[in-house]
Amino acid sequence: MKVVDISDLRSHTGEEVTIRGWLRRKRSSGKIQFLFLRDGSGFVQAIVERSSVSDSVFQNANNLKMESSVVVNGVVKVEERAPGGVELLVTDIEVVQIPEKDFPINKPDHSIDFLMDNRHLWLRTQRQTHILKIRHEIIKAVREFYNDRDFILVDTPIFTGSIGESAGNTFEIDYFDYGKAYLAQTGQLYLEAAAMALGKVYNLGPTFRAEKSKTRRHLIEFWMNEAEVAYYRHEDNIKLQEDLVSYIVHTTLEKAGDDLLAIGRDIDKLKKIETPFPRMTYDEAIKLLQKKGFTITWGDDIGADEETAVASEFDKPVVVEKYPKMMKAFYMQPDPERPEVVLCDDMLAPEGYGEIIGASERIYERELLIDRIKEYGLDVSSYDWYLELRDYGTVPHSGFGMGIERVVAWIAGLEHIREAIPFARTLYRIHP
Questions:
Q1: Co-location of 163 and 54 in the same domain
Q2: Which pTM was predicted?
Q3: 44 in Cβ contact with 86 (< 8 Å)
């Protein structure tokens, strides 16, 4: 008998097939048992009728507990009211395992701490599987976007002797006889080197920030997509970001629309995400925030609350550009028309999800870059190879970093970023 995924049952209407999975829940009305099964691809209701199966099969169904693993044979029947539009009329059940203990995730009102302590089991619940599928489609869309535009994937190191943005907020480790090394905050510097070889490059991998933040937007370990392009200036960079985000949103709507609807996401809001995105300068953002009653002046950081206030003016991401030089990373190119600001931008998601992209045109003049490294109190010698990129065919170039979990949280409409990654690493959590 053919083994099929639950997600593919509709194409086997009228056939007897085999599915392999787990029991999510069940109910009984005496002579009929209703088994709600999952296999990772989807969910289906399986109906066990006493009159249609042997006593042993009916008893097997009766013995099942939540998260029992089973192999089920049955005939696929159309039922438009059911998940996926089909049901399974059971002919046989092979029990693989019945748990001896009750499954702990069995109530709608478990505390967050309890759920996170049991994250390895929480992943099995219907909502969490939908979120993981949304994440999968988002990451797939990221890769497709770059592949379709002839970008080259470059895997950047996790261990680094250089520090990406500043000396703070890094995880320091002992690296054999070398001395101190750090978990990477970013792969940007290495991507810049690759861009000088390949022109258009990107990465996708884990990054680490030792920030003692407890907000709903922050993780200690998270996945980031970064891109660098030789000869791209500030405007080229913003256009690439807009195209990427728009592509991700619409591809996810196409590929995971059912998953978004299943978790209650208002997809009409996502359908409005079209380029170009609204844009304002940092100066304009400060003036807007002052009008909204914020006590903020030029040179102050735009924090989470301020980001939300700015983004609330729009129904799609807004690009805030040209921040003060003193508050941004050392490698950002000053605006030639206004040297106190840099050619950078932050993209803020709507609906209160904050910054999803940080970007800039990079400094390509060696002496200016050295001056900026010194201003930040960093060791110039640690950046010897990075500076050397400016000695051989230096060119203007630009790039950005996009936090995958923040994008997932926004597109899925999650209340907290911890649900946007399979196993969240937050300030007070490293288990499981």
A1: no
A2: 0.96
A3: yes
